[in-house]
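Let us practice reading a record.
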Amino acid sequence: MQISELETPALLIDLDIFERNLKRAADYTRQHGLRLRPHTKTHKVPEVGRRQIESGAVGLTVAKVGEAEVMLRSGTPDLLVAYPVIGASKLRRLAEVARQTRVTVALDSEEAARSLSTAAVEQGVGFGVLAEMDVGLGRVGVTPGPDVVALAKFLQSLPGLSFEGITFYPGHIKKAGEDGASDEARLSQTVRGVLDLLRHDGIVPNIVSGGSTPSLFDCHTVDGLTEIRPGTYVYNDVNTVVSGACTFDDCAVSILVTVVSTARPNQMIIDGGSKTFSSDRLVGSTALSFGRLVEAPGAVFCNMNEEHGYVNLEKAERRFAVGDRVRMIPNHVCAAVNLHENVYGVRNGTVEVTWQVEGRGKLQ
């Protein structure tokens, strides 16, 4: 099938760029002696997970049990659930996953740990566990310092659980390279301090897990880090470019849409809105923009309804007509992918593969 035969909106993945992104991350981790355990929240496709493993990843990361169940189809030898699993039914389901592959869970409370331990004993399985600490995002995780040591000791005391180390998500670091160097230095100091405290109490973590896409290629500067979990790198998006972690030449993703109206001067309406792109704005910017028009970067994707996208053409490099098909790179690819049933892997104008987004909507 040719791209021209696809109905729109359609989420496209440039396979040449996608494969280059996989190789770049795998080469980086090998060069710096880091384990790569990418987060599948971006693609939600078992086949993409399989390709990540084939390129050198040691396993995959998910947020929810439903995603873990889906990612079993990738053949991954290792799954990290980077989210506290709360609820008896979810824990029973996770135990079934653990019968099929190694499962490690990140958690930050004694309550979550006790429940996981109880499920492990009752179901006759074992779980690895990571103590999660908050390094600046203010979302989940205990405070770095004695609280991490206390949580680690508690995890070591519970049956059915194997304490593997610590984890954190530096999502507050939005800039790569020199722009984020001071944040990376503070992160390194924090991690080093926690590791010193753990070792003082005789606790030597096997895993120190962190990383994100904006900080991906700076992770080797964090003292003690052994494993990284980037997600967006696999496709990249406008926000990744804004962070400095890639260029638009590294964006494998675009959404093919059709111009359905040019009735108003200097404006066109495309057949994709908030149900196609998500309403995520540019990180760290007040600009009203929801994506980058590949064919005319000077145009501004300035407004959305559910099925309508408003594109301001005042500064566009060209004009468009009803029926024209154009490509838009979304601000945030993870949220956009979750809105699509399928993504289309393309090369040289041809649809080479169609992947069902099997993990979309897996919120439980």
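A brief commentary: Residues 3-9+246-356 form a domain with the Lyase, Ornithine Decarboxylase; Chain A, domain 1 fold (CATH 2.40.37.20).
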